[in-house]
Amino acid sequence: MKRYIELGLILCVALMASCTTQSRGGRPLDSGSQSISRQADQLYSMGEYEKAAILYQKLAEHPSGQQNVFRLQAAHALFKMGFDEQAKGYVDLIRPADLGLDQRNHLYLLYAQIDLSAGNAEQAINRLQLIQPFALTRDKQLEYRSARAFAFALTGQLEASARERITLGSYLFGDEKTQNNISILEVLALLPAHVQERQLSLQKYDIYSGWVELASIMRKFNKGSSEFNLALDSWMQKYTQHPGQSLIAAGYFSTNRVNIGDISEIAVFLPESGPYVAHAQAVKEGVMAAYYQHQQDAQRPNLHFYDTQSKDIVALYHEAIADGAQLVVGPLNKQLISQLAAGAEFSVPVLALNYVEELFKVNLYQFALSPLDEVRQATNQARFEGHKNAIILAPNTMDGDRLATYFKNAWNDLEGDVLDVQDFERGAKDFSFPVKQLLNINESQYRIQMLSKVIANVESNPYRRQDVDVIFMVAPNKVARLINPQFYHNRAESIAVYGLSRVYGGQPAPKKDIDLEGVGFCSIPWLFELAYQGDLDKRTLQSTWEQFPDSFLSLIAFGIDAYNVVPHLNKLDSMQYQGATGRLSLNAVNRIERRLICAKFKQGEALLIDTAENITVDFQDNASEFLLERELLIKPEEESRAY
């Protein structure tokens, strides 16, 4: 299935008609080629893209006045089939200067769609800026506006995305218009609360402001509550001619929670092959352990497992519904979640087992072992302990940049100061240089060397910077063991150090973890004896988790919660569920957040510490980070590949 699906960007027959004009230069078509061209156009219009592509490719091989047109048509057909690279190969052969205005617009639009399919949203925006929209047909306006709205959302330009959709709405009718209105609301629901409030304070009372106010109402009040209904009534009186009125009339704002009492069939979407099959198996073990624990329950739902590697994810969703599924749990892969959300209306709710930033959809719940929860709580803990000035140490990888940004945003939200961000080489074994760089030891040594050239027999020790009191370290267990001693060697033993859960290997290893002295982190309760009070604790399931690497232990706990949290989905927005992966609650965009426990290493042992419980934080994910979220938050075993 296409990675980029936005309002069904369907190329119309009008494209074929507009492309039949002759390109500059070249020989005219003979009658045989004209016949093949007409046949290809007909096949394309019928959705027979593979057959059409073969004919267009044949025509594109021969120089003619329409060679570039056939290249463009072949590229369109290949793109519709999902062959992005082959499609790009054809459009790369075309010189825009050799095309007329209509064909250039089509070329740039296809380039943008290919870029979006590959996740290159910024490049797509650049392509779209080359298009002259006044020359587009209505159908092409649909594609153009849809692509711009999607690209803006991917790059974190949420207001621009919503405004583009407002313009797009004037080209739509019926169900398409309704879905576009829902998309406007879903995009604006992702705006941070303070941004919503600032925009509403302008009191413009235009269409855009009306959507923002609706999104704000959804954030502030539980759907169906008396406060929600009162705010909605007030909105209706204020915006009497607003397009959102149609959503209210259609019942969009009626309570649409999962009716847990009626669920008897659950479909579980997990891969049975591919790179994440072992991770999926660990999750499945947890799900089945929880399932069998409830075997005496009279209303225990039936589980049906579906292989996400077997077919298109949207087709799989509809197959599960046809089989009677009333709730889908999964998929595990972030890309599949995005594809499913883009290609299906969720008549049956979905509890996705990962988290895609900036994705919000009615009846979609997202549950993940997300580092966002760990970052938020580690920074809360550090602030609770009185720290103010932070430096961040992370690998020079995409994952490292992403997590460093999380730490920076979270610390700034707590009114802490980030003084510096230092990276280190992926796969490094010696961390003396990046740590010295971080602590300004190198500058101190340089000053001493310069002074010794002026004053003979200077005796002085380099000193570290004195303006920092906490270090946030992004590193897995084995790497952290090499980094932490460098802080002591460079006289920074008084600086607090916090890492992510990956700093702990999952099993006690005092002799090896002695090098992690003083490092704090926040993780799931299930890994620590007595921290999780459920029946399926780590000791009970020892025979299960012993089959997996230590780094997979959290996935078993994740599977336990993925099953056990289902009966509580209706009330997670108002009360917490005490799970194996933390205390679970539901935020305004239907992401299940985890309240973790925290620990510090002392003499090689990870010992639980008192946890900061009630620090109020409005920690919002940075929208521009969507592009950095292509990989799974659940990493493969080979940590060295990520660092």
What does this structure look like?
- The chain is an alpha/beta fold.
- The chain has 4 domains: 13-155, Serine Threonine Protein Phosphatase 5, Tetratricopeptide repeat (Alpha Horseshoe); 188-249, no CATH class; 257-367 and 533-591, Rossmann fold; 371-524 and 596-642, Rossmann fold (3-Layer(aba) Sandwich).
- Helix content is 45%, strand content 11%.
- The strands form 2 sheets. It has an 8-stranded mixed β-sheet, with helices on both faces. Strands 7-6-8-9-10-14-15 form a 7-stranded mixed β-sheet, with helices on both faces.
- Strand 9 (496-498), helix 23 and strand 10 form a beta-alpha-beta unit.
- Helix 6 (101-117) runs antiparallel to helix 7, helix 6 (101-117) packs parallel to helix 8 (138-154) and helix 9 packs antiparallel against helix 10 (174-188).
- The longest helix has 17 residues, at 101-117.
- The radius of gyration is 28 Å and the shape is globular.
- The relative contact order is 0.09.
What share of residues is helical?
Answer: 40-55%
* Name of the CATH superfamily of the largest domain: Response regulator
Which strand order do you get reading across the main beta sheet? Answer: 2-1-3-4-5-13-12-11
- What's the total helix number? 26
Number of domains as seen in the coordinates: 4
Q: What is the CATH architecture annotation of the largest domain?
A: 3-Layer(aba) Sandwich
Cα Rg: 28 Å
Low-confidence stretches: 1-25, 441-456, 614-643
- CATH structural class of the largest domain: Alpha Beta
Going by helix content, strand content and strand pairing, the class is: alpha/beta
Sheet-strand content, in percent, reads 5-15%
